[in-house]
C-alpha cells in the first residue's frame, strides 16, 4: 500500500529499530514505548487487520509471538506482558496494517492501563447468535 507507514518500514523507506525479522514478518520497537521494550510484530504482507487475514497468514504471525515475547521478558526482567491487537478505529486501531503490540509489564503503574467492565448480558442468547 502506497500510504501505509508499516509497508514503508518493511520496504526500508522509513527507519525502524528492528528486534526480529524473517520472511513473513518484522518486529520493531514502537516509537511510543508505552513501557520499555514495547514492540510491534507486523506481517510483511499488507492486510488491513487480523480479521482480514487468511488463516495461514495469521498462523505465521502468531507462531512467533511467544518467541519474541519471551525475548522481551527475559531481556528486561519484565514481570508479565500484555499482548494487544486492535481491529478497526472503534477498537483503537490507528495504523491499518495488521500488527500486534507486545507490551512488557513491570508493575501495575508502569504506564499501561487496560480496564475491563463487567456487564450482565444473557450469555446463552449471545452464544446462540454467534452459532
UniProtKB/TrEMBL annotation:
It holds the Pfam family HIT. PANTHER family: ADENOSINE 5'-MONOPHOSPHORAMIDASE HNT1, HIT FAMILY PROTEIN 1. Residues 5-112 form the HIT domain. GO terms for molecular function: methyltransferase activity. InterPro entries: HINT, Histidine_triad_CS, Histidine_triad_HIT, HIT-like, HIT-like_sf. It comes from Lactococcus muris. It is an enzyme of class 2 (transferase). Its EC number is 2.1.1.-. This is HIT family protein. One of its GO terms (biological process) is methylation. Keywords: Methyltransferase, Transferase. A motif (Histidine triad motif) lies at residues 97-101. It comes from the Bacteria.
